[in-house]
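User: Hi! I'm working on a homework problem where we have to compare a predicted structure to a textbook description. Could you give me the structure for the chain below?
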Amino acid sequence: MNLYEHTIVIKQDVGATQIKKLTEKYSKIVESNDGNIVQTENWGLLNLSYIIKKNKKANYIHFKIKGGGNIIKELEKNESLDQNLLRYMTVKVKKFDLEANYFAKREEKTKKENNNN
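Assistant: Happy to help. Predicted structure tokens:
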């Protein structure tokens, strides 16, 4: 089994219900191709480094996927046709970092750090 981290960048004007539907859609594609989603993270609405298709901001969804290479081919084939997506990226990794939450708000991070001490 291969390990992948897959991120999709969704247009800023897409609503929360539609983002949830997109997350479920791509999760089902992974599961239908004998893959397993280890973790899904909604990073929220973030500023883009540069304007993409007249968008200054975008919603980010990050998947940690366990499975074969055919899953990624199928995902990217469907994503290339989706009008709501600006970009997508897949990275093959050796192991998942399930502990760190890089996009948590500062208040949440300080609460976690205080609880751990």
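For your comparison, note the following. The chain has one domain: 2-116. The first strand starts at residue 2 and ends at 11. Good luck with the assignment!
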